[in-house]
Amino acid sequence: MNNKIYIVEDETDILELLRLVLAQAGYNTEGFTGAKAMLNRLDEQIPDLIILDLMLPDLDGMEACRIIKNRPAWETIPIIMLTARTDVEDRVKGLEYGADDYITKPFASSELVARVKAVLRRRGWETSKNVLTITPDFKIDFNKFEVYIRDKKIDLTLTEFKILQLLTQRPGWVYSRNQILDYLWGNDKIVIERTVDVHIRNLREKLDDFAWMIKNIRGMGYKFSLYEEDSGQ
Ligand code: CA
Q1: Which terminus, N or C, of the chain has the lesser number of Cβ atoms within 10 Å?
Q2: Top-confidence residue, 142 or 10
Protein backbone atom coordinates (compact mmCIF):
# COMPACT_ATOMS: atom_id res chain seq x y z
CA MET A 1 0.00 0.00 0.00
CA ASN A 2 1.28 3.46 -0.85
CA ASN A 3 2.00 5.88 1.94
CA LYS A 4 -0.46 8.71 2.19
CA ILE A 5 0.93 12.22 2.58
CA TYR A 6 -1.03 15.40 3.29
CA ILE A 7 0.63 18.57 2.01
CA VAL A 8 -0.36 22.03 3.25
CA GLU A 9 0.97 24.95 1.24
CA ASP A 10 -0.88 28.11 0.24
CA GLU A 11 1.33 28.88 -2.76
CA THR A 12 -0.35 26.68 -5.33
CA ASP A 13 2.65 26.38 -7.66
CA ILE A 14 4.80 25.05 -4.82
CA LEU A 15 1.96 22.78 -3.72
CA GLU A 16 1.71 21.34 -7.23
CA LEU A 17 5.46 20.88 -7.39
CA LEU A 18 5.48 19.01 -4.06
CA ARG A 19 2.64 16.76 -5.18
CA LEU A 20 4.31 16.03 -8.49
CA VAL A 21 7.69 15.16 -6.97
CA LEU A 22 6.13 12.91 -4.33
CA ALA A 23 3.77 11.24 -6.82
CA GLN A 24 6.78 10.42 -9.00
CA ALA A 25 8.44 8.89 -5.93
CA GLY A 26 5.39 6.63 -5.53
CA TYR A 27 3.48 8.43 -2.78
CA ASN A 28 -0.23 9.09 -2.62
CA THR A 29 -0.75 12.78 -1.82
CA GLU A 30 -3.57 15.14 -0.91
CA GLY A 31 -3.05 18.89 -1.16
CA PHE A 32 -4.49 21.67 1.01
CA THR A 33 -4.04 25.43 0.69
CA GLY A 34 -4.90 26.00 4.36
CA ALA A 35 -4.31 24.27 7.69
CA LYS A 36 -7.95 24.23 8.80
CA ALA A 37 -9.14 22.14 5.86
CA MET A 38 -6.33 19.67 6.58
CA LEU A 39 -7.26 19.47 10.28
CA ASN A 40 -10.86 18.72 9.28
CA ARG A 41 -9.63 16.00 6.96
CA LEU A 42 -7.70 14.41 9.84
CA ASP A 43 -11.03 13.63 11.48
CA GLU A 44 -11.84 11.43 8.50
CA GLN A 45 -8.49 9.93 7.60
CA ILE A 46 -5.07 9.87 9.23
CA PRO A 47 -2.16 10.06 6.79
CA ASP A 48 1.31 8.55 7.22
CA LEU A 49 2.95 11.97 7.06
CA ILE A 50 2.09 15.68 6.91
CA ILE A 51 4.17 18.28 5.12
CA LEU A 52 3.21 21.58 6.66
CA ASP A 53 4.12 25.05 5.46
CA LEU A 54 4.97 27.49 8.23
CA MET A 55 3.40 30.63 6.76
CA LEU A 56 -0.26 30.01 6.03
CA PRO A 57 -3.13 32.48 5.69
CA ASP A 58 -5.71 30.82 7.95
CA LEU A 59 -3.67 29.26 10.74
CA ASP A 60 0.04 29.48 11.47
CA GLY A 61 1.84 26.21 10.63
CA MET A 62 3.43 26.16 14.07
CA GLU A 63 0.00 26.42 15.70
CA ALA A 64 -1.35 23.63 13.47
CA CYS A 65 1.62 21.50 14.49
CA ARG A 66 0.90 22.16 18.16
CA ILE A 67 -2.77 21.19 17.74
CA ILE A 68 -1.85 17.91 16.03
CA LYS A 69 0.80 16.99 18.58
CA ASN A 70 -1.55 17.67 21.48
CA ARG A 71 -4.25 15.32 20.30
CA PRO A 72 -3.64 11.66 21.25
CA ALA A 73 -5.18 10.27 18.09
CA TRP A 74 -2.97 12.51 15.94
CA GLU A 75 0.21 13.02 17.89
CA THR A 76 2.13 10.18 16.27
CA ILE A 77 1.62 11.47 12.73
CA PRO A 78 5.07 12.63 11.57
CA ILE A 79 5.28 16.26 10.47
CA ILE A 80 7.82 17.87 8.18
CA MET A 81 7.73 21.65 8.44
CA LEU A 82 8.26 23.64 5.29
CA THR A 83 9.72 27.06 5.75
CA ALA A 84 10.95 29.90 3.60
CA ARG A 85 12.69 31.40 6.57
CA THR A 86 16.25 30.54 7.31
CA ASP A 87 15.69 31.64 10.87
CA VAL A 88 17.17 29.06 13.22
CA GLU A 89 14.69 30.06 15.91
CA ASP A 90 11.74 28.89 13.80
CA ARG A 91 13.33 25.54 13.17
CA VAL A 92 14.04 25.00 16.84
CA LYS A 93 10.51 26.06 17.72
CA GLY A 94 9.10 23.66 15.12
CA LEU A 95 11.07 20.76 16.53
CA GLU A 96 10.04 21.71 20.06
CA TYR A 97 6.40 21.58 19.00
CA GLY A 98 7.00 18.02 17.86
CA ALA A 99 7.78 18.42 14.16
CA ASP A 100 9.97 15.53 13.01
CA ASP A 101 12.00 17.42 10.47
CA TYR A 102 11.99 20.59 8.40
CA ILE A 103 12.77 21.58 4.84
CA THR A 104 13.81 25.05 3.82
CA LYS A 105 12.43 26.55 0.62
CA PRO A 106 13.70 26.45 -2.07
CA PHE A 107 14.41 22.73 -1.87
CA ALA A 108 15.83 20.16 -4.27
CA SER A 109 13.45 17.36 -5.25
CA SER A 110 15.99 14.74 -4.21
CA GLU A 111 16.34 16.30 -0.76
CA LEU A 112 12.56 16.36 -0.28
CA VAL A 113 12.19 12.69 -1.19
CA ALA A 114 15.14 11.70 1.00
CA ARG A 115 13.66 13.51 4.02
CA VAL A 116 10.23 11.98 3.47
CA LYS A 117 11.73 8.50 3.19
CA ALA A 118 13.80 8.95 6.34
CA VAL A 119 10.85 10.16 8.43
CA LEU A 120 8.57 7.35 7.20
CA ARG A 121 11.24 4.73 7.87
CA ARG A 122 11.67 5.99 11.41
CA ARG A 123 7.93 5.86 11.97
CA GLY A 124 7.61 2.31 10.61
CA TRP A 125 10.25 1.12 13.03
CA GLU A 126 8.66 2.84 16.01
CA THR A 127 5.21 1.52 15.17
CA SER A 128 6.22 -2.11 14.96
CA LYS A 129 8.14 -1.77 18.20
CA ASN A 130 5.17 -0.39 20.06
CA VAL A 131 2.43 -2.86 19.32
CA LEU A 132 1.80 -5.24 22.20
CA THR A 133 0.06 -8.47 21.21
CA ILE A 134 -1.45 -9.88 24.40
CA THR A 135 -3.29 -12.52 22.43
CA PRO A 136 -3.89 -12.51 18.66
CA ASP A 137 -7.35 -11.13 19.50
CA PHE A 138 -6.19 -8.41 21.90
CA LYS A 139 -3.60 -5.89 20.77
CA ILE A 140 -2.45 -2.52 22.06
CA ASP A 141 -0.80 0.05 19.83
CA PHE A 142 1.07 2.40 22.18
CA ASN A 143 2.08 4.68 19.34
CA LYS A 144 -1.41 5.32 18.10
CA PHE A 145 -3.11 5.00 21.50
CA GLU A 146 -5.37 2.32 20.05
CA VAL A 147 -6.65 -0.97 21.35
CA TYR A 148 -7.92 -3.73 19.10
CA ILE A 149 -10.13 -6.61 20.09
CA ARG A 150 -10.63 -9.15 17.30
CA ASP A 151 -9.32 -6.50 14.87
CA LYS A 152 -12.02 -4.06 15.92
CA LYS A 153 -10.80 -0.75 17.35
CA ILE A 154 -12.03 -0.13 20.90
CA ASP A 155 -12.87 3.42 21.82
CA LEU A 156 -11.02 4.19 25.07
CA THR A 157 -10.62 7.55 26.78
CA LEU A 158 -7.05 8.73 27.28
CA THR A 159 -7.31 7.96 31.02
CA GLU A 160 -8.54 4.43 30.37
CA PHE A 161 -5.77 3.92 27.86
CA LYS A 162 -3.11 5.12 30.28
CA ILE A 163 -4.37 2.82 33.03
CA LEU A 164 -4.18 -0.11 30.61
CA GLN A 165 -0.71 1.01 29.57
CA LEU A 166 0.48 1.10 33.18
CA LEU A 167 -1.00 -2.26 34.17
CA THR A 168 0.25 -4.11 31.07
CA GLN A 169 3.79 -2.83 31.60
CA ARG A 170 4.21 -5.42 34.33
CA PRO A 171 1.66 -8.21 34.20
CA GLY A 172 1.05 -9.72 37.64
CA TRP A 173 2.29 -6.63 39.44
CA VAL A 174 -0.25 -5.02 41.77
CA TYR A 175 -0.62 -1.23 41.53
CA SER A 176 -2.34 0.62 44.35
CA ARG A 177 -5.01 3.19 43.50
CA ASN A 178 -2.63 5.86 44.68
CA GLN A 179 0.13 4.65 42.33
CA ILE A 180 -2.31 4.67 39.44
CA LEU A 181 -3.36 8.23 40.27
CA ASP A 182 0.29 9.27 40.45
CA TYR A 183 0.90 7.81 37.03
CA LEU A 184 -2.12 9.58 35.58
CA TRP A 185 -1.79 13.00 37.09
CA GLY A 186 1.46 13.21 39.05
CA ASN A 187 1.56 16.03 41.54
CA ASP A 188 -1.45 17.69 39.95
CA LYS A 189 -3.82 15.06 41.21
CA ILE A 190 -6.87 16.41 42.95
CA VAL A 191 -9.10 13.40 42.45
CA ILE A 192 -10.01 10.79 45.02
CA GLU A 193 -8.99 7.15 44.88
CA ARG A 194 -12.51 6.01 44.02
CA THR A 195 -12.08 7.70 40.63
CA VAL A 196 -9.73 4.89 39.69
CA ASP A 197 -12.49 2.34 40.30
CA VAL A 198 -14.82 4.21 37.97
CA HIS A 199 -12.25 4.32 35.17
CA ILE A 200 -11.39 0.66 35.67
CA ARG A 201 -15.06 -0.33 35.57
CA ASN A 202 -15.50 1.53 32.26
CA LEU A 203 -12.28 0.09 30.88
CA ARG A 204 -13.32 -3.47 31.79
CA GLU A 205 -16.69 -2.99 30.15
CA LYS A 206 -14.99 -1.95 26.92
CA LEU A 207 -12.52 -4.84 27.03
CA ASP A 208 -15.50 -7.17 26.83
CA ASP A 209 -14.26 -10.81 26.82
CA PHE A 210 -10.87 -9.72 28.14
CA ALA A 211 -12.23 -7.78 31.13
CA TRP A 212 -11.07 -10.57 33.46
CA MET A 213 -7.45 -9.69 32.69
CA ILE A 214 -7.76 -6.63 34.90
CA LYS A 215 -8.07 -7.99 38.40
CA ASN A 216 -8.97 -6.24 41.61
CA ILE A 217 -6.86 -7.36 44.54
CA ARG A 218 -8.89 -6.64 47.63
CA GLY A 219 -7.36 -4.02 49.87
CA MET A 220 -4.39 -3.51 47.54
CA GLY A 221 -5.29 -2.32 44.08
CA TYR A 222 -5.29 -3.63 40.52
CA LYS A 223 -3.17 -5.82 38.33
CA PHE A 224 -3.10 -7.12 34.80
CA SER A 225 -3.12 -10.91 34.59
CA LEU A 226 -2.80 -13.38 31.77
CA TYR A 227 -4.25 -16.21 33.85
CA GLU A 228 -7.96 -16.50 34.35
CA GLU A 229 -7.69 -18.53 37.57
CA ASP A 230 -5.28 -16.00 39.10
CA SER A 231 -6.38 -14.54 42.48
CA GLY A 232 -8.49 -11.46 42.33
CA GLN A 233 -12.10 -10.69 41.66
CA1 CA B 1 3.18 29.92 2.65
Answers
A1: N
A2: 10
Which residues are placed with Cβ below 5 angstroms of ligand 1, an ion?
10, 53, 55
Q: Distance from the CA of 94 to the center of ligand 1, in angstroms?
A: 15
- Distance (angstroms) between ligand 1 centre and the Cα of 12 equals 9
Please spell the DSSP secondary structure of the chain, one letter per residue. Answer: -PPEEEEE-SSHHHHHHHHHHHHHTT-EEEEESSHHHHHHHHHH---SEEEEES--SSS-HHHHHHHHHTSTTTTTS-EEEEES---HHHHHHHHHTT--EEEESS--HHHHHHHHHHHHHHHHHHHHHTEEEEETTEEEETTTTEEEETTEEE---HHHHHHHHHHHHSTT--B-HHHHHHHHHGGG--S-THHHHHHHHHHHHHHGGGGGGEEEETTTEEEE-S-TTSS--
Assigned architecture for domain 131-224 = Orthogonal Bundle (1.10)
Quick: pLDDT tens for 100-124: 888 888 889 998 999 898 888 776 6
Class of domain 4-123: alpha beta
